[in-house]
Amino acid sequence: MPPPRYSPFETSLPDLKPDDLDVLRSVQEGWYVEYKRELPSVRSIAKSISAFANTYGGWLFYGIAENRQDRTAGAFPGLPCADEATIEMQVRQAASSSISPPPYFRAKTIRGPSAELGLADDRFIIAIEVPMSDEAPHIHVDGRIYRRVGDESDPRAETDRHMLDLLWQRSERKRKALRELLRRISTTVSENFDSGSYLEVFFVPAAWKEQIPEPPPSFDDFATLMTDSSLETGGLPLENCFTFSDGFIARQVRGNNPRAQLLTWRYYLDGVSHITVPFSTFPLDAKDSPLSQYDHFATFEAKCSEVGYTNVTVIDLNYLFAVLGAVVRRHDALGNLAGALFPYRVKLRFRGAKSRVPFLDLPNFISFITAFGIPIGHFDDIFWPSEEDTMYNFGEPAEDRERWTHDRTAKLFFRAFDAFGVPAEHIAKGDNWSQALDGLKDRATKVYGLRRATPRQS
């Protein structure tokens, strides 16, 4: 569970209304609260956000003037609504470009009118909620580490070595917890299902252990989403849904062996998702295997024969791009059911890759193996990113959600294939690599049937 957080309100940030801010007339600036009448520079915003994250968390308000006598909220002049989009962008930039690592926070614009506050209908107040961060210290772009101190209205640069050590220890506890989480989830899965070649995808909210999903999804909402076969939610129906002690599970069992390692989504109530994606594997010389239906398999088979790879097992990775795209879309939809899923981080883990060779039905892949030979798995487990407690930061979805989804899916796909031995720059060569991936997705779907983009498991 996340640590208890201070809030001056009886409702959560997403539900705040203008009149709820009236309680701030009796709330003083200090450890947990900061008021600013105007929006300061991006660097100043970053200083305040990082200070709250490094200390105990707190609330930052722009568009509220401080009462200098008792340091409570004295007036609510607000900021001009005409500048709302620009101001929201500056707040996001403050965290992404001026703080390292960027801390998690939530912001809401609260528009007038409010007669009780004296807030006009063309003015708004922006409220920023910053949890105490488990990834401290967050370092400002000026090289300093800021903290909140007592009843001071502005952050102070921390120079005490003992306090800095405590911040580093807090961060180390988060990394250790993350290592243990990934190891526990992955080990449980590998011990309970048949061995094979499969991919594990971990989605962990950036605010994991700092903020729980709010509100958490119900089982019925989860099941409705997972059984949905529309393209908006990924197009992969997982029709077998049930609960477990920590959350919900959805599996794609129709037409498959339920004892096998199937396409499975495990959702934990703290916002973590763990998805297993099984791969089809075939002996290179297997008769009538689905691999023969691909455009470039005959060339791949001939290249294998040239170097004596006649008795190897081939991993069919051709539907990987389709599945990763579906998974990203579904996690996006899951974020609409459960708060605190964005921004989030991703980790990939391949299991059962040792002594197996990958196949990708793309001309660029054939060009690579022609020039450099055929990669073969040297490790049973392959991680990306390789460090056990490091994850790839997906960040906040962009305004063009379709492009954002495609680009993030391609990023994961390239890194996955990079881990398998083929550098991403060789797969992404030329001007038409994006269209080539879309074509690959279509071919893989035809090979394994139009209903699902993952193969049937025996």
UniProtKB/TrEMBL annotation:
Domain of life: Bacteria
InterPro entries per record: Schlafen_AlbA_2_dom, Schlafen_AlbA_2_dom_sf
MF (Gene Ontology): ATP binding
PANTHER family in UniProt: GLPR-RELATED TRANSCRIPTIONAL REPRESSOR (PTHR30595), SCHLAFEN ALBA-2 DOMAIN-CONTAINING PROTEIN (PTHR30595:SF6)
Keywords: ATP-binding, Nucleotide-binding
Pfam families for this protein: SLFN_AlbA_2 (PF04326)
Name of protein: ATP-binding protein
Location of the Schlafen AlbA-2 domain: 30-155
